[in-house]
């Protein structure tokens, strides 16, 4: 039954079932006294009137006026709407009854009008119960949908973690196997394992320790160095409190760009400067690398920098600095973000 309710199409079916039950009940109640023709006619007419008041209120008047703060207008229009329909129903009912179903015509008097108007306002007040039922089923449907999505996401997360953790264990085994014969290779394997563990365990977090982020950068730099034939001169200046935190992967773009664009693999002298300094409540991150002839046309708005700028706008609206400068000799990137 719960699954049936949680289907959006089935909520409409429940409403259809409700109105079908009302039609059938009214028809059976009127049949013994009014006969088949009159019973079917007035059942259809009266139930249509009820539906018009209920849906006219909950689907139009209430959301159009009341939910938008126009409570006085809502009260006025709701009164006119219900009173007008009730009055019309009274006169139409009497007219149909007089023309087709009675021998002695009945007059429309104050008593008849009062009964129809009272019935109309009673249906109007019941429309709120009807609305609450629809809202309840809709919210329950959304809740069940969100729970299903959450469960699916958690399952996918567990699936995605199986292979990385298997790889971590494999890399650790390889590390121990190669440590005796090739210590340097074993050290690089350990750094690769740490990088992968960072991606899985740390990067999804909102914030990480600054020391964790720097360790990640150091490991990345160490692995990038093995691709370069000649040694590089890299000066990484670090001056900050070890207990501060930072958003993960915030500094990676600058370092990655150095090894993509700032290294000449054929050159024996590649001088790289990196600094991360804490100053007056801010972190100042700066990288500087030489520009080689084939890299002179570097654009300031590469995809990495552009994505970083969008992320910074979300994290620190109007409270950060990001600048890219280059001349014929050096490419300099600078980032300033507040310490939270």
Descriptive notes:
The protein has 340 residues and is an alpha+beta fold. It has 2 domains: 2-151, no CATH class; 179-338, Heat Shock Protein 90 (2-Layer Sandwich). It contains 9 helices and 7 strands. The chain has helices at residues 2-6, 8-34, 36-66, 71-101, 110-178, 183-202, 210-225, 252-261, 303-315, and strands at 208-209, 233-239, 245-246, 271-279, 282-290, 321-326, 330-338. A 5-stranded mixed β-sheet has the order 2-4-5-7-6, covered by helices on one side. It has a two-stranded antiparallel ribbon with strand order 1-3. A hairpin with a 2-residue loop joins strand 4 and strand 5 (282-290). Helix 3 packs across helix 5, helix 5 (110-178) packs antiparallel against helix 6 (183-202) and helix 6 (183-202) crosses helix 7 (210-225). The radius of gyration is 37 Å and the shape is elongated. The two termini are 50 Å apart.
């Amino acid at each position: 039954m719960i699954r049936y309710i949680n289907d959006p199409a089935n909520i409409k079916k429940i409403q259809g079932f409700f109105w079908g039950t009302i039609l059938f009940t009214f028809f059976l109640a009127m049949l013994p006294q009014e006969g088949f023709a009159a019973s079917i006619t007035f059942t259809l007419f009266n139930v249509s009137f009820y539906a018009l008041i209920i849906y006219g209120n909950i689907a139009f008047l209430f959301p159009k006026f009341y939910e938008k703060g126009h409570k006085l207008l809502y009260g006025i229009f709701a009164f006119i709407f219900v009173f007008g329909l009730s009055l019309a129903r009274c006169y139409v009912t009497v007219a149909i009854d007089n023309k087709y179903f009675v021998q002695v015509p009945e007059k429309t008097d104050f008593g008849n009008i009062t009964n129809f108007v009272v019935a109309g306002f009673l249906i109007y007040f019941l429309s709120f119960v009807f609305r609450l039922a629809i809202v309840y089923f809709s919210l329950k449907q959304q809740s069940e949908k969100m729970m299903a999505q959450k469960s699916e996401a958690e399952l996918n997360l567990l699936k995605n973690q199986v292979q990385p953790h298997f790889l971590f264990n494999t890399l650790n085994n390889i590390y121990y196997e190669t440590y005796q014969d090739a210590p340097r290779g074993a050290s690089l394997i350990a750094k690769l394992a740490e990088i992968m563990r960072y991606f899985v365990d740390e990067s999804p977090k909102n914030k990480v320790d600054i020391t964790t982020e720097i360790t990640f950068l150091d490991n990345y730099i160490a692995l990038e160095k093995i691709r370069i034939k000649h040694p590089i001169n890299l000066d990484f200046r670090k001056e900050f409190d070890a207990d501060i935190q930072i958003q993960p992967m915030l500094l990676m773009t600058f370092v990655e760009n150095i090894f993509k664009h700032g290294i000449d693999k054929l050159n024996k002298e590649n001088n790289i400067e990196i600094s991360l300094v804490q100053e007056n409540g801010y972190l100042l991150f700066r990288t500087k690398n030489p520009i080689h002839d084939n890299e002179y046309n570097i654009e300031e708005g590469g995809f990495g920098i552009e994505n970083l700028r969008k992320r910074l706008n979300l994290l620190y609206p109007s409270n950060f600095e990001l600048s890219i400068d280059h001349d014929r000799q050096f490419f300099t990137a600078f980032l300033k973000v507040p310490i939270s």
